[in-house]
Design goal:
Elements: H1 18-28, H2 87-103, H3 107-120, H4 126-142, H5 146-159, H6 164-176, H7 180-193, H8 199-222, H9 231-238, H10 274-283, H11 290-299, H12 305-318, H13 322-334, H14 340-356, H15 360-373, H16 378-390, H17 394-407, H18 412-428, H19 432-448, H20 453-465, H21 469-482, H22 487-501, H23 504-517, H24 522-535, H25 538-551, H26 555-578
Helix pairs in contact: 1-22, 2-3, 2-4, 3-4, 4-5, 4-6, 5-6, 6-7, 7-8, 7-26, 8-26, 10-11, 11-12, 12-13, 12-14, 13-14, 14-15, 14-16, 15-16, 16-17, 16-18, 17-18, 18-19, 18-20, 19-20, 20-21, 21-22, 22-23, 23-24, 24-25, 25-26
GO biological process, one term: protein insertion into mitochondrial inner membrane
Protein name: Mitochondrial import receptor subunit TOM70
Membrane topology: Single-pass membrane protein
Length: 585
């Protein structure tokens, strides 16, 4: 929901309404969405259908399970019409006795009967034997003997490879045994075999994907190489602040006369100040030197120490090193003699950092403090409004945008975001009249501010929701005219081609263009990965997700990407093991 101008604070990372698009994308491509922000399972509802979901999973089975085809199987090959005391008949009798004990809650006795059934059953009677193992696993499950549950389910699956009940029971046992990878593989097979129709298996898949994602992201994020985002991203980030001293150009007195050459190294600044040199580098887009120059100012306790701390913290945030940014922000916030604009800006940035770390309480506290110490600072209300949208507090968001607009009537960004907030409120409330009013609001904003790319981008999102694809496409073209180097817009336009015309080639061409413009656009790689899953190119999808993981700007974003990657990987394993080929677009 955050603006493209505010990329660092977006839990989706890519700017624009990247957070929305990820879910829209899954809908576009006809894939069911797992709950929450976990993984999107991208094998659509076209997967193999089984008639009945395995709903009564606590009870043992009375008959042999369905065969590999999914329906019916062979039932009881030696049914009641056959000789009662054939070996199979005796095995069935032992199993039936076990079922009675099971229903009475006498699980140890049930296990003895199922064990007897297994030993009596002719080895060639695969389906019957698999049922006996599965029933014994159900009894072990009641006794919480998870290793035995997993072992018996494995026997059942070896005898009957697409035995959904046994696969799901084994998935639950693996979850208890903390074998997340094995659990994911089993539950993925269950989801596909049940055509994503069973809530229980979908919930378990989502849960284990989130756990795996979090676990992997924690490890990877700790040891990641800090990575400077693209110049487009950095400029877009700074453009979302107007009351921000550190991002303003150098004043005439601070600049040196010979600063004519914008290509090479920063020309020497007469005053020997690390901060002023850092500012010079910033104007030249030589961003890699800013942290080290700011550090010199801080170590020298120079006259721009507060500014240098804030500038260094900002670049730590931009390279995804929040733990290094926090002490710098804390220090600026506690400097009571520093310019109040610096302290308010530090509070906005720390509040946004807390939001990325999923600590909305601390985040709200920082924004409220910023409003207390600098009530005339329009940035505070603009950024707090975005936070409120993420927290789904739309009315409060609109109040903040109104305050921002009162303080800064020419803020096209705040006006566009206010429109989007009102639109989301109307859309989720399914109120046709207020949706119409919000859409008219967008028209007014783009008329009043024809050079605000964000206004067109947010309007395009709303038009896409309303299925007005042709007009949405025009809006994206306006964005591209205004900001030809904004990669995110190309990704959104690419997604639109898929939803509107199912034009995969055009969609991929636009997303490739986004990567050409900004090869650090994680949103583009993630989207491409999602499309490749749909096309059945799972290896290519995994490669794209891994590229996005290496570019992720927060641990939360990285965890989400790992979930997508693990979902794709589990599907490749299931495809190999069970010969389930994914449907392709």
């Amino acid at each position: 929901v955050m603006a493209a101008s505010k990329p660092v604070e977006v839990p989706g990372g890519g700017g624009g309404t990247a957070g929305l698009s990820r879910w829209q994308l899954a809908l576009v491509l006809g894939a069911p969405i797992l709950l929450g922000a976990g993984a999107v399972y991208l094998w659509g509802r076209r997967a193999t259908r089984r008639g009945k979901g395995a709903n009564e999973r606590k009870t043992p089975e009375g008959r042999a399970s369905p065969g590999p085809g999914g329906e019916g199987g062979s039932g009881q090959p030696d049914g009641p019409g056959h000789e009662e005391m054939s070996p199979l008949g005796r095995a069935q009798a032992a199993k039936n006795k076990g079922n009675k004990y099971f229903k009475a809650g006498k699980y140890e006795l049930a296990i003895q009967c199922y064990t007897e059934a297994i030993s009596l059953c002719p080895p060639e009677k695969n389906l019957d034997l698999s049922t006996f193992y599965q029933n014994r696993a159900a009894a072990y499950e009641q006794l919480q003997k998870w290793t035995e549950v997993a072992q018996d389910c494995t026997k059942a699956v070896e005898l009957n490879p697409k035995y959904v009940k046994a696969l799901f029971r084994r998935a639950k046992a693996h979850e208890k045994l903390d074998n997340k990878k094995e659990c994911l593989e089993d539950v993925t097979a269950v989801c596909i075999l049940e055509a994503f129709q069973n809530q229980q298996s979908m919930l378990l898949a989502d849960k284990v994907l989130k756990l795996l994602g979090k676990e992997k992201a924690k490890e990877k994020y700790k040891n990641r190489e800090p990575l400077m985002p693209s110049p487009q991203f950095i400029k877009s980030y700074f453009s979302s602040f107007t009351d921000d001293i550190i991002s303003q150009p150098l004043l005439k007195g601070e600049k040196s006369d010979e600063d004519k050459d914008k290509e090479g190294e920063a020309s020497e600044v007469k005053e020997n100040s690390g901060y002023l040199r850092a500012k010079q580098y910033m104007e030249e887009e030589n961003y890699d030197k800013i942290i080290s120059e700011s550090t010199k100012e801080i170590e020298a306790k120079g006259r721009y120490m507060a500014e240098a701390l804030l500038l260094r913290a900002t670049f730590y945030l931009l390279i995804g090193n929040a733990s290094a940014a926090k002490p710098d922000l804390d220090q600026v916030i506690s400097m009571e003699d520093a310019n109040v604009k610096l302290r308010a800006n530090a509070l906005i940035k720390r509040g946004s950092m807390y939001m990325q770390q999923q600590q909305p309480g601390l985040s709200t506290q920082d924004f409220n403090m910023a409003a207390d110490i600098d009530p005339q600072n329009a940035d505070v209300y603009h950024h707090r409004g975005q936070l409120k949208i993420l927290l789904d507090q739309i009315e409060e968001a609109v109040e903040d945008f109104d305050e921002c607009i009162r303080l800064r009537p020419n803020s096209a960004l705040a006006q566009a975001q206010k429109c989007f907030a009102l639109y989301r409120q109307a859309y989720t409330g399914s109120n046709a009249l207020t949706v119409q009013a919000a859409m008219k609001g967008f028209e007014d904003v783009i008329k009043k501010f024809p050079n605000c790319a964000e206004g067109y981008a947010l309007y395009a999102q709303a038009l896409t929701d309303q299925q007005q694809f042709g007009k949405a496409d025009e809006m994206y073209d306006k964005c591209i005219d205004l900001e030809p180097d904004n990669a995110t817009t190309y990704v959104h336009k690419g997604l639109l081609q898929l939803q509107w015309k199912q034009d995969l080639d055009k969609g991929l061409e636009l997303i490739s263009k986004a990567i050409e413009i900004d090869n650090k656009c994680d949103f583009a790689y993630e989207t491409m990965g999602t499309i490749e899953v749909q096309r059945g190119n799972l290896d290519k999808a995994i490669e794209m997700f891994n590229k996005a993981i290496n570019l992720a700007k927060s641990e939360m974003e990285m965890a989400h990407l790992y979930s997508l990657c693990d979902a794709a990987y589990a599907q490749t394993e299931v495809a190999k093991k069970y010969g389930l080929k994914p449907p392709t677009l």
